[in-house]
Amino acid sequence: APGVASPMTPEGSGVAREPACAAAAFGDAPIVADPDTYLRVARACEAARGVGQALALCERALAMLRTRQPQPGERIADALLMRASLLGELGRPDERLSTVAEAQAMVASTDDPRHLATVLLHRAQALRAVGQPTQALEAARRALTLSRHAGDLPGQADALDEVALLAWHAGSLPEALRAEGQALALHRRIGDDSGEAAALINLGSML
Question: How far is the C-alpha of 114 from the C-alpha of 96, rounded, in Å?
Fold first, then answer.
């Protein structure tokens, strides 16, 4: 399809040429065809606005992870969350939601609250994108609770941003202002300038 390119792997070579969008970051040398490298190049492609290429690379990494069993569920879940984000950027919300659901199943038995909180935050965002704000707000609140339990300040800030947005659109302005105010304080505390700026813009929009 136009705008979507998969790296070409010569038969039996074990290496792949990088897509054009990642050339500036990695040069012209061949890359070893392993999942971590594909995901790294996918991030470079996404940063260079080559989202279609990034998705193709992410799909390749996922296929490799699934065939190289056993793999930790959390590792596959991380790749699935990348896929979900890329699908969101490409305007494919239903596929995004189903991908997040698959990632959630992968970490269902984890005892790592931080990892589960990350998946739930992605779920909240995906549900919002398909017009299910009530379920999205529930997922965002669960993500916030788990992030607090884990002591994950960046995770708390991101979850509070999402809670604030969803509460605002649901007409619950007091909860939205409270959550965004807490998010602003956390962004400042951890030195997240872009998060702080976004929180200030959000507060300005709510008032």
Answer: 21
Burial 146-170 (b: 16+ CB within 10 A, else e): bbbebebeebbbbbbbbbbbbbbee
Cis peptide before 72 (omega within 30 of 0): no
**Among all chains, which residue has been given the structure tokens 């919002």?**
128
Are the C-beta atoms of residues 50 and 36 closer than 8 Å to each other?
Answer: no
Name the residue with tokens 């779920």. Answer: 123
> Which residues, given as ranges, of the chain have pLDDT below 70?
1-32, 69
The single residue listed with the structure tokens 């995906």 is: 126
> What local confidence, expressed as pLDDT, does residue 189 receive?
96
* CA-closest candidate to residue 146, choices 159, 133, 135: 159
pTM above threshold 0.85: no
Q: Give the containing element (helix H, strand E) for 31.
A: strand 31-32
Length of the chain in terms of residues written:
207
Cβ pair 117, 140 in contact under 8 A: no
What is d(CA 107, CA 112) in angstroms, rounded to the nearest whole number? Answer: 9
Query: 3-state SS of 50-73?
Result: CHHHHHHHHHHHHHHHHHCCCCCH
